[in-house]
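Quick question, first post here. What does this chain look like in 3D?
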Amino acid sequence: MEWSNFPAKDLVLPYLDYEARCNLRSCSKSDLAIVDSTDFVPEKMEIQEIKSQMDTEKSIIRLKIDTFTVWFIGKNEKTRIERAWGEEKMEMEEIKEENRFDLLRRYIDRFLKNGVFEATSLAIVNPSFEPQAHWKIKTSNLLLECRGIPSTWVINWLNTVVPDTKLRDLEVHNWNLEGIAELPLIYEVSRKLCFPSAADLQDEHLERLKATNLDLVAARATVEGVKNVVQRILRSSGEISICAPLPYDFDPVILIPEDVKFQKMTSKNPGVSLFKIPAGNRILYHTQNIVRVIKKPEDEKRNYLLWPFHFN
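> Answer (accepted):
Ran it through. Tokens below.
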């Protein structure tokens, strides 16, 4: 049976990636209509801005949707547009007498459904711009990497996430994460929560986290807060890495629940404490301000060197 006579095209479309859908749109007017009328959710979407090292006013904005990539290259009101499928760049290039940020915003607007653009995994990397007021994000896995931008921009990007979104993974990188503790969405993340820069998380915030895998720098947490969150992870199958202002005479044994058996291990690195915990086959290790609980590595001779953090 030929595609033109296939009676259930709408059942096939959800299994097509972005490239296949674009190719199908060009086959006929009826195919174009059915593609445009069927919701599409990319598996992976990435928005990345790459600053020019030679010209501070110039940058490249890279938008990737599954295997399709489009680049908006330029400065001021002149932009070159390049496209590629997979690793093969298309010969067609365009020059627009228009700002690259405006072009990107208009391109993204094409994917909005009732103001929402959706992807299974979404990465936003080094944006020098804030989201549009009408943008809403729906995704399972969100990476926001934006070192050096104002913390208010970080909050604005995270506030675009649709409230009922069931985030599985959330990872945010910025030098300043002030205000992030007030966002309800961080307490609904179900699997992995990663704030490897100083977040304004206190003990009460740590208690509310549902994620089973944590990678946090919590400069306002206390020993009691760290103890509670580590013990929760130890009783589950999760993993944790938390950096907090622990005292120099801190004894990491107090982190292990009384009902959990453990074995003290010898470390070749001074200042590092290691404990083998049979339950879950994991290792707890501590040095200065860092506590980690990870699954036991296959190679037990692995070097556990950790660089301590110091808080003023």
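The chain has two domains: 1-40, 42-251.
Residues 1-40 form one domain.
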